[in-house]
């Protein structure tokens, strides 16, 4: 009996370690609300967020989604713990851009921007910032985001490089000068808030299945609404 209990304890301990090392930190499906469907319950706070239903691409994307439009239309989690202890992370989401000026998401504190993905008009194209660096984004990804249609995007941090996926396809990688550490706690903002510089009231976008992982999902990045 004692050996059986010891074996069970060992198995449970291994599962807990694996769960943390490669865990889904947060998952927001926006199926009618801003609640987190993962085990960590990082529920977002919303301001001027609409929940709409899509019938486009029913075999891939279905159900409801969040729509943010205009000044101070956003979903936010204050003091969000990304749980990243090294240079590995994955941020993936479905997005449909309705305007040429938008902020898809920002992870920052009051003084420093750690992660940000945005577009400030055709003169700049889409841009991504990590720890003060601005790695080059594949042209195909930026072009697709301006097509006013739904696309699945995955941004994978793999130590000193960023890997880019569009609709499940690998589009290329960007080199980083250093392996940026991401602090455990910051404010996550999806959409536009007056705290963010360089954006106007023209921001308008739709979002579904926004997920954050504390591991580099080099394989297994999917486009299905339920991975």
TrEMBL record:
Keywords, ordered alphabetically: Signal
Pfam families cross-referenced by the UniProt entry: Laminin_G_3
Signal peptide residue numbers: 1-22
Membrane-spanning parts: none
Keyword Signal belongs to the record: yes
Protein name: LamG-like jellyroll fold domain-containing protein
């Amino acid at each position: 009996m004692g050996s059986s209990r010891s074996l069970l304890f060992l198995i449970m301990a291994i599962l807990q370690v694996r769960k943390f090392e490669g865990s889904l930190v947060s998952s927001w499906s926006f199926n009618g609300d801003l609640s987190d469907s993962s085990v960590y319950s990082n529920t977002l706070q919303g301001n001027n967020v609409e929940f709409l239903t899509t019938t486009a691409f029913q075999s891939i994307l279905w159900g409801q989604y969040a729509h943010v439009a205009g000044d101070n239309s956003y979903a936010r989690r204050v003091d969000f713990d990304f749980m990243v202890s090294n240079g590995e992370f994955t941020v993936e989401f479905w997005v449909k851009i309705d305007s040429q000026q938008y902020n898809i998401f920002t992870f920052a504190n009051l003084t420093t921007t750690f992660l940000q993905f945005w577009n400030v008009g055709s003169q700049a194209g889409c841009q991504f910032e990590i720890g003060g660096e601005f790695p080059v984004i594949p042209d195909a990804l930026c072009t697709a985001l301006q097509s006013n249609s739904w696309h699945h995007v995955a941004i994978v941090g793999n130590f000193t490089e960023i890997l880019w996926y569009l609709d499940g396809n690998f589009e290329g990688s960007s080199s980083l000068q250093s392996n940026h550490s991401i602090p455990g706690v910051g404010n996550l903002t999806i959409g536009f808030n007056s705290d963010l510089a360089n954006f106007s009231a023209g921001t308008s976008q739709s979002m579904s299945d926004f997920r954050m992982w504390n591991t580099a999902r080099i394989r297994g990045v999917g486009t299905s609404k339920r991975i």
